[in-house]
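Notes to self after the call with IL:
- keep both proteins in one doc
- input above output, always
- annotate only the second one for now

Protein 1:
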Amino acid sequence: MKTRTKTKVSPPLALSPLSNCLPARSHNGFTLIELLVVIAIIAILAGLLLPALAKAKDKARAVQCLSDLKQISVTTTMYADDYNNTYFHLGGGDMPNHGQWTRNPTSDVLLPPTDSYAYWAIGYLKYFGSNKRVFGCPSAKHVDEWRENGLRYPATYWHNSTYGVHQYLLKPYNSSVGSAPLKTTSYKSPSTMIFCQESAESKMEGQEDSIGAFSPGAPILTQWIGNGPPNRGGLSASQYKGYAFENEWYRHSNNKVCQTLWVDGHASRIKFTGLKGANAGIDYRHYTGETVLKPVRD
């Protein structure tokens, strides 16, 4: 008869009261609340910094714009010195009224300065080393793209045509000024006469397409914005989906400053005063070369 040997069984180990609990959380990560707090702090800091960055960027663009205007002064003055104290014109004081450097966006061939589609700056081509970027304000967005003539070229095609001259540089506003083409020596006050400025218009001709108040109290820039905001008319409404074209004359300091080159060679800022009413625009004599009754202040 077999003898069954009993095996001594050890009693079960006692479980720790914490043995059924989950492992302790690692402290290497972040909780959702911590992440949300960090994101909120970053958003607050960004909100504080972005306006300052935008202001700094605008200031840098304004400095570049003023530098370009001064370069334009040097080149156009050299041209006038070589051409009997007269700026470039097509004859009889006429200037090109278009804004194209080439025939179309696919062409690299510059138009001759006498071409009816040429930008006025092409007349000074050899004096600025063919560097057309000098005429591109870094804050410009839309200038005259001639959409009413059926053109639909991209806005970038026009970005080196962002400064406008005025017809009274070469054509007298009245007989007391002289005869066309006017000479630079005929201007009564070169320091208060505009040569060119930030503008959607390549060649400004009057109150409807400049910031000059030729008729006291009447609205300015009506060709482009009608009677102005809040309901813009003119080319803005018919061709550019209500774009605020007044900002192309006032491109800097939150659309409150128009940077301008004067005949005597200095460049300065014209502050925004209004689009209609008694304070609209500036004294028109800044364009015609007559003695200015209400000079602008930088």
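Protein 2 (the one to annotate):
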Amino acid sequence: MLLGKQGAGKGTQCVSLSRHYVIAHISTGEIFRAAAKSGTEFGRKAKEFMDAGELVPDDVVNGLVRERLTKDDTKRGFLLDGYPRNVQQAETLDRMLGPRGIDLVIDIEVATDVVLKRLAGRRVCVDCGTNYSVDTPPRDDWTCDRCGGKVIQREDDTEHAIKRRLRLYEEQTEPLIAWYMGCDKLVSIDGVGATERVTARIIQAIDARMRHA
């Protein structure tokens, strides 16, 4: 599981790690975007929260994750991205998994000013959710290299929404870091640097922990 402020680059790291270890990448962000796109009642509610820079309520998030963890592709293992976001969700996750539990939690540390700069330049494919930036755009006129979808700036990447999400992070997610530290399952990683270097740091930390498990 990866933790980190929005814009810390953890989405890109999760994709790389899921491929490296051949495990499922479970992103609550992708689940929410799919729900919003579906036009269902929950989808409309989820979109309202996301557009306002708010977090989707715990009971809804927990239900979606519980359903996702029943899929066959999680049997080999999985990487959680964006969940849990607070201690209450972490306790619910523990009950879901039982003795199986979480092996390791990675906290990607990036300074707030760096996060703000990254988010201001972030661009996202509306169809598959692949992340780009103004510094690393897709090859062809803001058309996704992966699926051909349109690449845009998200509505919740405005300065107001970004600052709101960072406040929510400080209020709700930072206590979660302390909680996992108390469970001896947390490893902090420097998130500054090229994507490949940060990914290598994470892999090294995971492999070291698994060798001593």
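Annotation: Helices lie at 10-21, 28-38, 41-51, 58-68, 87-97, 112-120, 159-182, 195-211. The first helix runs from residue 10 to 21.
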